[in-house]
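Exercise 7. Given the encoded structure of a 143-residue chain, write a plausible sequence.
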């Protein structure tokens, strides 16, 4: 899937409330194993920052491994999470104004349902945090 329009968050709008990216959800089958990749350009400041998470609707997971990477022209950060809790923030920072982000990994579904990609600011700010049009994502069933 490809994000069709910019999505923005700032205090006074969504701010620090996790909000699903329009059209960025997938139906997962019980017992399925999936590989996923969510990546693209973002705009943020060190005032507002960025948080990204998955929202599970009905779906519950047996396991997940998420590698979250963030890049600028001169900086790179990588973190790994294995937390299956709904709305766990896999990216959650404002120390650096990154321009590229990626969530990559795999998961095993216990109960079927949907997973949506969500975003928000890390800290409420009048500065805008944006996930830009053209952000891409895919979930591929591998077993």
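Solution.
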């Amino acid at each position: 899937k490809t994000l069709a329009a910019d999505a923005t968050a700032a205090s006074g709008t969504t701010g620090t409330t996790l909000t699903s990216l329009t059209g960025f959800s997938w139906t997962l089958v019980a017992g399925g194993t999936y590989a996923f990749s969510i990546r693209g350009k973002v705009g943020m400041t060190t005032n507002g920052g960025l948080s990204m998470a998955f929202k599970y609707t009905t779906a519950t997971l047996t396991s997940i491994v998420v590698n979250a990477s963030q890049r600028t022209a001169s900086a790179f950060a990588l973190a790994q999470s294995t937390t299956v809790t709904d709305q766990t923030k896999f990216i959650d920072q404002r120390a650096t104004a990154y321009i590229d982000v990626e969530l990559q990994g795999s998961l095993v579904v216990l109960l079927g349902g949907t997973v949506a990609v969500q975003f928000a600011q890390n800290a409420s700010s009048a500065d805008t945090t944006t996930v830009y049009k053209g952000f891409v994502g895919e979930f591929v069933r591998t077993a």
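Remark. The mean pLDDT is 96. Students should compare their own answers with the one above.
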